[in-house]
Amino acid sequence: MLGRSTSSAVNRTAQRADKEYALRYDWRGNSLIVMHNFDEKPHEIRIKPGIEGGERLVNLLVENQSEADKGGTHRLALEAYGYRWFRIGSLNHILRRTRV
User: Is 45 domain-assigned?
Assistant: First the structure.
């Protein structure tokens, strides 16, 4: 997915560009957000995915998810040098797919 996808920076409400990184990849109707904390201290990263289904982020590395607040913002804690990979939305889009 990453090699053929388009990528865009994720809208973050607090900018620490030298310490945090959040990028969204889109390909064939699927989206992925990768987040990294390059600091020796933990950080809370607040992001707005800016895409349909962005109210739910499903962690791809452990079994949990994040639900956005009423304003569409996710508040995610990253430990020192931590990272997270999230799929945007549920898998309901698979049920709506049509054959090509």
Answer: yes
User: What letter would DSSP give residue 95?
Assistant: H
d(CA 75, CA 73): 7
Please compute, for residue 57, the number of CA atoms within 13 A of its CA located in the half-sphere on the CB side: 25
pLDDT in tens, 15-29: 566 788 888 998 877
CATH value at residue 66: 2.60.40.1180
Residue 93's H or E segment, with its range, is: helix 92-96
The structure tokens listed for 75 are 């508040």
Structurally, the chain folds into a number of domains equal to 1
Domain enclosing residue 60, as ranges: 6-90
